[in-house]
Amino acid sequence: MFKNIIANYIGKIWGIFSVFIFVPFYIKILGIEAYAIINFYGIILTIMYFADGGLSATLNREFARNTDKAIMGNILFTIERVYICICIFIALFIASFSSIIANNWLNTQSISPHSLQTFIILMGLSVAFQLFSTLENSGLLGLEKQVLANGIQVLSSFFRSAVVLIPLYFYPSLLTFFVWQVVVNVLFFFITRYNLWKYIKTDTKHSFDKEFLKTVGKFAGGMMLMAIISSLNTQIDKLVISKTLSLKEFGYYSLAGVLSQSPILLVSPIAVAILPRLVKYSENINKTRLKRIFHINSSILSALATSAGLVLFLFTYDFILIWTHNKEIATTIDNVAKVLILGSVFLSFQFMPYHLAIANGHTKTNIKLSVVSLILIIPTLYYSVNRYGLIGATFTWLALNVIAYLYLGYFLLGKFLKNEFKNWLFFDTILPLIIACIVGCVSYFLVYNLPKGLYVLLYSVVIGIICLGINLFALGKIYPNYKYLYINIFKKNITK
Questions:
Q1: At 450, is the secondary structure helix, strand, or coil?
Q2: Cβ-count burial of 231 within 10 angstroms (0-12 exposed, 13-18 middle, 19+ buried)?
Q3: pLDDT tens digits for 147-164?
Q4: Using one digit for the tens of pLDDT, what is the confidence trace for 2-56?
Q5: Range 378-384 average pLDDT
Q6: Is 144 helix (H, G, I), strand (E, B) or coil?
Q7: Lowest mean pLDDT among 206-215, 238-247, 347-356, 458-467
Q8: How many CB atoms lie within 10 A of CB 210?
Q9: HSE-up (13 A, CA, CB side) for residue 445
Q10: Residue 296 in contact with residue 482, Cβ under 8 Å?
Q11: What is the pLDDT of residue 209?
């Protein structure tokens, strides 16, 4: 598991690096409105994950549970056939609504509706192939081939986000950008698929397994519903802003959202790497080991998220200015990004309860929460955005994640780790948050009059390490053997 966490971190570090390095180039070459269109593509990609039908999560879970290559081959063969239909549906669905989105949804004065419609059709094709790649990649993750999976993801991301600057330099247009995305996603779909089949290939001829679909139908269906509503919940603020405000303002909000995702990008590698272990311990009904690995990883995730959130919150304006070299952008989105950062920290607290539920094949609790949230958040967002502008959407996002954090923790731990909710709440999440707040208050007064600019990078590293160090010290007092657990895992992986 240790090497898988490292591999996931390399993938995430590249993801963070690519966003923060290349986004300013997109804005410089194409403009803030064009960047807003690119971000709208990201929203469509996220929302269309619901069409996955829970099949990626199902494939990951089934590959983590099985060792028979013939069975795994039949599972993959079956899911791929279903996925072909899903991807065709996605491309046709987005194309059919492209005219409505271009003419009645996005508010732009510099891009023609006809051009917008073309871009949206290309988005549909690109999304379809990227989703199919995600399915194949989830199979590699289920096999715990996370080094390979992340290597492919990093390479594909490099081509999508970095190499695209070469054609954009010669042909600076959104058409160039989206054609390039389609080509790259098609190429890496075939690369990912080839590598997955290589690990489960046998001489047995594979067949479409209807019984398998019936068996996992409940879990996959639950994951589909959860994905539909969760994707809408996470993207509804951006959808409302893209409809209500101008593309320029939507572009500003998108930039703030990118910065605020840093705590989530930092903790998700551990959550992804730990899922196969949670599945195995849940299957074996090994509550002692399940309890220990859940609490330790919850604490580590919280320590990382609060430490990252702290330095981002303290130096939001400075980070944005260093990143974009634009004082107007930094001033406009400073407070917007701060509130979104807080929301992301509370979202990161939800990762371990969420994965605990997935490991046990449970989706009902997440679905209930998501449905209620969606019903309440849409009218609240419309009111907040129309009344208060960009900042109105951020407080809605923060409130949603605080409520979800408490709800999921209480009900999911009550179901799968009885009598552990209070320990998780106070020791695994609130304590790291309190430590970050104390370190933040002290740090604020210490660095207030110090030089800013690039020095902020140094301050943030020092403050982040101090906060993380105090959190890990507290973790050692609460769970004395946590370091030995990771040392043993590391040794096991080295000897394999």
A1: coil
A2: buried
A3: 788 788 888 888 998 899
A4: 555 565 556 656 666 666 788 888 888 998 888 899 989 988 887 776 656 567 7
A5: 90
A6: coil
A7: 206-215
A8: 9
A9: 5
A10: yes
A11: 73
For 331, 335, 398, 422, the CA distances from 260, given in Å and listed in that order, are 16, 11, 12, 28
Tokens of 460: 């943030």
Quote the tokens at residue 43: 């929203």
Nearby residues of 405 by Cβ (< 8 Å), 6 or more positions away: 346, 347, 349, 350, 429
CB 70 within 8 A of CB 258: no
Q: What is the DSSP letter of 51?
A: G
CB distance 198 to 67 below 8 Å: no
Residues 6+ apart with CB under 8 A from 286: none
Mean pLDDT over each residue of the chain, to the nearest integer: 85
Amino acid in position 13: I
Residue 418 and residue 411: Cα distance in Å, rounded?
10
Residue 320 phi, psi dihedral angles, 5° rounding? -65, -40
Using CA atoms, how far apart are residues 256 and 261, in angstroms rounded to an integer?
9
Query: Could you tell me if 324 and 330 are in contact, meaning their C-beta atoms sit under 8 angstroms apart?
Result: yes
Q: Using CA atoms, how far apart are residues 495 and 253, in angstroms rounded to an integer?
A: 47
pLDDT tens-digit readout, 186-204: 999 999 999 998 888 877 7
For 333, the token pair is: 């989105």
For residue 105, the number of C-alpha atoms closer than 13 Å in the C-beta half-sphere is 16
Buried b (16+ CB within 10 A) or exposed e, 48-80: bbbbbbbbbbbbbbbbbeeeeeebbbbbbbbbb
What's the rounded Cα separation, in Å, for the pair 165 and 23? 11
Number of neighbours of residue 119 by Cβ within 10 angstroms? 24
119 near 174, Cβ under 8 Å?
Answer: yes
Mean pLDDT, residues 313-322: 94
Measure the CA–CA gap between 223 and 364, rounded to whole angstroms: 9
Radius of gyration of the chain (CA): 22
As given in the structure block, the two tokens for residue 324 are 């974009």
**CB contact set of 400 (below 8 Å; sequence gap of 6+):** 233, 343, 373, 377
- Tokens representing residue 61 in the block: 């879970």
CB 290 within 8 A of CB 367: no
Q: Are 75 and 212 in contact (CB under 8 A)?
A: yes
CA 334 to chain centre: 22
Structure tokens at 312: 């981002």
Q: What is the DSSP string of 29-69?
A: HH-HHHHHHHHHHHHHHHHHGGGGTTHHHHHHHHHHH---H
Nearest to 177 by CA among 40, 48, 38: 38
pLDDT greater than 70 at residue 223: no
Distance (Å, whole) CA 492 – CA 479: 21
Q: Tell me how many degrees the CA angle 399-400-401 measures, rounded to the nearest 5.
A: 95
